[in-house]
Design brief:
Elements: H1 20-27, E1 48-56, E2 63-69, E3 78-79, E4 82-84, H2 91-103, E5 107-120, E6 125-136, E7 150-157, H3 169-177, E8 196-197
Parallel strand pairs: 1-6, 5-8
Antiparallel strand pairs: 1-4, 2-3, 2-7, 5-6
Length: 199
């Protein structure tokens, strides 16, 4: 292992420090340590950052676009289009990209709608999801471009939603906040403490 180069009166040169991964390999003989080191328990994963999109359409009054999830987490629950925020991306860019990738829709007037902090310890799920809102272009209808992840898209009236236990966590939290996609008010965020513990 290299030593730090120092000059009297100057702090150690950070460039001469070994990379943490190299130092770890040196300490463990080139192997990665087990999850628990020195009596510590494995830490849960850090929360993810997602973007969900509430999409409305002039052709479908009072409706938003919903899909039904496939896969190991939340299978069979209803979801909004959305996904992970990519490096350097704005929230609006992420919303537009994910909607195009998943539902083949281009969005207009994308703006902030809400944010939720959803935790399900049993599923080791913890996401902070920023919800954006946008309108589909007139006459445009969704296509399911990721059938391995989603059963299909449908327009569902906001006032005739499936029950809460059939909603994927971010959407369930959004509904519990009292969000209304047909107003521009943000009253649903007043008093929100950022905590949704889900069973």
């Amino acid at each position: 292992m290299r030593t730090l180069r120092t000059t009297p009166g100057r702090p150690p040169d950070w460039r001469s420090r070994p990379h943490p991964a190299a130092a770890l390999r040196a300490l463990t003989g080139g192997t990665e340590p087990p999850p628990a080191v020195m009596g510590e328990t494995a830490q849960p994963p850090r929360p993810g950052i997602g973007v969900g999109v509430v999409i409305t359409s002039p052709a479908h009054p009072n409706c938003v676009l919903l899909g039904k999830r496939k896969g190991p987490v939340g299978a069979g629950t209803y979801q909004l289009p959305g996904g992970h925020l990519e490096f350097g991306e704005s929230l609006a860019e992420c919303a537009a990209r994910e909607t195009l990738e998943e539902a083949a829709l281009r969005l207009r007037n994308v703006r902030f709608a809400s944010a939720v902090n959803a935790v399900c310890a049993a599923a080791r799920y913890h996401y902070v999801t920023v919800l954006m809102k946008g309108e589909a272009e007139p006459g445009a209808e969704p296509r399911n471009r990721e059938p391995e992840k989603n059963e299909g898209w449908e327009w569902v009236k906001w006032d005739e939603f499936p029950p809460a236990d059939q909603l994927f966590w971010a959407l369930r939290c959004l509904r519990e906040q009292g969000y209304n996609p047909f107003t521009e008010e943000l009253d649903h965020l007043k008093g929100y403490t950022g905590s949704h513990q889900l069973a």
